[in-house]
Predict the structure.
Amino acid sequence: MVEFALAPTRPRNGANPPEIRDGSVVRAVFLDIDDTLVDFTTASRAALTAMIGRSDMWSLWERITDEYVARVVTGELDYPTMHRRRTAAFLEAIGVAVDEADAARFERRRAAGMRARFRLFDDVLPCLTRLRANGLRIAAVTNASGTHQRAKLEELGLSPYIDHVAIAGEVGAAKPDPLIFYSACAAVDCEPHEAMHVGDRLRTDAVGARKAGLRGVWLNRSGARATVPEGVTEIGSLAELADQVEYAIAGTVVPTPR
C-alpha cells in the first residue's frame, strides 16, 4: 500500500488555501456519493419537475427530505416508510391531498424517473482509476438509503472501485457525526488521521470529517464562494484530487496555475 503526504492545494477564489502537508500519510480516501460521484440533484430535480409540472418546489422537497431522513437515522422510521411519508408530506405542503397508497404510487414513479436520469460526473471514473492504481483504499460514505445507494453504485459501474460502503441508517449515525467516519476507518483498517473524506457539502462532509480527525476535502464543483475553515481543503474537481495524490507520491508540489 502506498503511503503519501498531500501537497498544498492550489488557490481558489483568490484566497490562499490551508496547507495540508504535515508529513503524515493517507492510506484511504472516502467519498460521498450523491453530487460527488453521481449527479443526483440534476436527476432528482428533473424527475420531480416532470411529476408535478413545476420547477420551483425543489427547496421545499429538500427541506422535507432532510427532516424525514433524520428520523431514519434515529431509528424512528425505515427507509421505505420514510419515502412514502416524505412524499405525502411534500404533496400535502403543495396542496395535493393524498393517502398513503397515492403517495407510494407517486414515489415509485418519481424514483423510477430519477434513476433513469442518474449520470456519473465525467471526472469520477478517471479519478477512481488513478486512486486505485496508487494503492489507496476507497470507501463511500453516505447518509442515504443503503439499498438504493448500493444499487446505484452497481448500476453505474462503481462497485469494483469501492472497498466499503458506510450507510448512516446502518451505522446509526449520519454525517457529520464522527461515528460514521470511524466506522469506515475500521472497515478499511486505517486510523482517522490516515483517511481523507471528500464531499460536496462543506459542513456535513469536509468540516465533519476534519472534526472527526480525518482530512476534510470540500468538492466545490460550482465555484461557490464560502469561508473555508482552517484544516479543510477545497478542490473544484475530482481530477484535482487525483493530481494531489500523484504529485505527493512524486514528492513535488502541485503547480499553481498562472
Remarks:
- Residues 100-117 form the longest helix (18 residues).
- The radius of gyration is 19 Å.
- Residues 139 and 164 are 5 Å apart (CA to CA).
